[in-house]
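[PROTEIN RECORD]
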Amino acid sequence: MGNDLWVATQEALRRCVAEQTFQTWFKPISFLAKNDSTITLKVPSQFFYEWVKSHYGDLVEETLSGIAGTPLKVDYSIVLEEQKETYPRSLFESPVIQAQNKPKQEFSPNLNDQYIFSNFVEGPSNQFAKAAGQAVVEAQDNSLYNPLVVYGGVGLGKTHLVQAIGNAVLDLHPEKRVMYVSSEKFTLDFINAIKENRTAQFSKFYRSVDLLIVDDIQFFQKKVRTQEEFFHTFNELYMNGRRIILSTDRPPAELGLHSRLTSRFNAGLLVDIQEPDYETRVAILRQKADESGSDIPYEVLEFLAVNIDTNVRDLQGALIRLLAYASLVKSDITPNLARRVLAEVMHQHVSTIVNVDSIVETVAENFGVKKVDIMGKSRRQEIALARQIAMYMAKQLTRNSLKSIGLSFGGRDHSTVIHAVKTIDEKMGRDELFNAEVKTLIRRLSEPAFDQNN
């Protein structure tokens, strides 16, 4: 009944707010529990809770109460995957009865079903790691790439990748016992097992899985007894041909863990995920925009990708804030709005969007040639020079790779771009007037293109 009430409330809210607002802030909320005076709703993050509570809290409560026909208080519960129960209490209390009366996969693998390979955006920064993950799924021999250790900075997609492996394994082998757990949850479970005198049951559970995925193993540092327990768990799984997948924020040798753990980690396959390049950041933003059902202009996605070059998590956070701001002020999503929102969020200067098209247009206008000729195959001296200047400026002003720049100029390869950059660089060094002219063009394009008051 409580779930039906929330579904009806969602439909009513949908009629009260813009569709983009509904998709962003109300659709992800789900029913969790209800009593006579309170309904508890599940939200996916702390930021999400704070925004909904502060901006739509009264609307949600009034709409719910109106549909229920009685005043209701609304509570929110932030439910993250690592908060799920790692192992069932019944596993400890009656393992024999459980085996007889329950199916084998009676416990939650703790996997987020949204983390799959198909929505893991691939780029040069993560290509090898993704290929290794897929190879693990397809491998018939569990000794191959075991353990798989994925390392990299925060917010780069390690959790997505390791959980995608777990989900893919379950898709292929539903009968397998797959368990995803954060290192902190493993530690907490171990501490509780010690307190409740259940360490034997704890060990039996973790050592019975077919695939154990442990996220953020750097947090095992200085936890001596937890490292000891995990060492024995790792050994038994490995010796029995079970698979282990680990993630961490840096290579195992730099974690400061016990040497015998480090040596076992290093004996497997170590793959790193680096910060995404410009093209990958744009692809990630386009995918997230599609998933949210939002029609966001490419110029805006490009603007976000240029200004946020740290990690995937920051990119997603910026996109969510932009969607929220647009829905709140009932504004179209434009580069001007993106610039203002980013400046407010990041409290720092954000750069002007400069793309290859605007560079070519500026160079064509300045040198009195046609834009189509710069992009074409003409070898006339004045056009070839303008083309080389445009390539040079694209290298200076955009985050595009040399390959991407070449493709933007009529499908040329990266060696053409390298030659152009070298040619213009040398000419600027010899000719002061030419040097000043090119720098003037660069300065013109580098100046803020948006009026922040609009």
Q: What stands out?
A: The two ends are 47 Å apart (CA to CA).
